[in-house]
Amino acid sequence: MQGAVSANAPDAWSAGGKRRKPVFRLCAAAGPGEILVGSRTVELVGVAGTFEPLPPIRLKGKAQPVPLFRVGGPTPANTKAAS
């Protein structure tokens, strides 16, 4: 879950819920300028984005390695539609 912290500060956002810690750990594993996501994000975005599969990563609190993908950007068809 994510959302604005306060109506008085609409640019201040926070995240909560059971998925928060794994997301923060993926952010910590990413290199400069790199965005890493899990399989659920890839499923939700579908063909609208490009993703490079990476070796699974072990995250604290997870029994099994987590599938990992590097975000490549929007697909060419979606880039043209946004222009």
Walk me through what this model shows.
The relative contact order is 0.17. The model is unreliable at 1-5 (pLDDT under 50). The protein has one domain. 29% of the residues lie in helices and 39% in strands. The longest helix has 10 residues, at 20-29. It is of the alpha+beta class and 83 residues long. The strands form 2 sheets. It has a 3-stranded antiparallel beta sheet. The chain has a two-stranded antiparallel sheet with strand order 1-2.
What attributes does this structure have?
alpha+beta; 83 residues; single chain; two-stranded antiparallel sheet; three-stranded antiparallel β-sheet; 39% strand; 5 strands
Spans where pLDDT lies below 50 across 5 or more residues: 1-5
Count of discrete structural domains: 1
- Beta-strand content bin: 35-45%
User: What is the overall shape?
Assistant: globular
Helix and strand content put the structural class at alpha+beta
Number of helices: 3
Cα radius of gyration in angstroms = 15 Å
The portion of residues assigned to helices is: 25-40%
Number of strands: 5
Tell me the span between the first and last alpha carbons.
30 Å
**Element-level helix/strand string:** EEHEHEEH
Mean pLDDT, to the nearest integer, reads 74
